[in-house]
Design a protein that fits this description.
Length: 231
């Protein structure tokens, strides 16, 4: 079955060029030219990948990325003229899977699109095979029975600590901001109170890490958020 791609680009010439090339590669393309349209299109249709420009009218690409990541793990490839390390770190930190700097070759774009879809498909299959128990290092997370063991030791977590660990374990190597963690775990709007996140992260690390100050599992990306590195 052909993969469906949402292309979000306000430059008409670039959009037409990319759309034509990817269609020739067998993809089904839906194109929009602003951030608001991208959010609405993603809510109404299912896509296998989103190609997202950053500088756009109505909603910029980073805001679109943040909104989509609140509810969806669809692979997102940023396609932008902004090429600084800060821009890349910010985009990847908000949950983008890849970052391609303009100008680029269509051959490279196609290769990255296929790689992102392939990774997402493989990860989805692995999750379906054993979705009830997640093993990372010497941690075993039983999602069905809300149990965590470390080696042979049973780890007692609060409901929120378990929810945070499950969130990271189910999305290994993906970076979550404090805002995203709060909205996904507490299911509420985030008003910038970092203390509640900091306290829960510290307590969780004290329970699952050998050295909480030098964590093996949940890593801090300063100024961006946290991620759990897969083993």
């Amino acid at each position: 079955m052909s993969k469906r791609i949402l292309l979000v680009e306000d430059d008409e010439s670039i959009s037409e060029m990319v759309e034509k090339y990817l269609r020739s590669e067998g993809f089904i393309i839906t194109s929009v030219n602003n951030g608001e349209a991208a959010v609405k299109q993603n809510q109404s249709s299912a896509f296998d990948l989103i190609i997202l420009d950053i500088m756009m009218p109505k909603l910029d690409g980073l805001e679109v990325l943040r909104i989509i990541r609140e509810t969806s793990a669809v692979p997102i490839l940023i396609m932008s003229a902004k090429d600084s390390d800060v821009d890349k770190a910010l985009g990847l930190g908000l949950g983008a899977d890849d970052y391609l700097v303009k100008p680029f070759s269509l051959l490279e774009l196609s290769a990255r699109v296929k790689a992102a879809i392939r990774r997402a498909t493989q990860y989805s299959r692995e999750q379906q095979v054993n979705e009830d128990v997640i093993e990372i290092g010497d941690l075993k997370i039983d999602v069905t029975n809300f149990m965590v063991t470390k080696g042979k030791e049973h780890i007692k977590l609060t409901a929120k600590e378990f929810a945070i660990l499950k969130l990271f374990a189910s999305n290994q190597n993906r970076v979550f901001t404090k805002q995203q963690i709060y909205q996904l775990v507490w299911d509420d709007e985030y008003y910038g109170d970092e203390n509640i996140i900091n306290v829960h992260m510290r307590r969780l690390r004290e329970k699952i890490e050998e050295e909480p100050s030098n964590p093996r599992y949940i890593k801090t990306l300063w100024g961006i958020g946290y991620k759990l590195e897969g083993f």
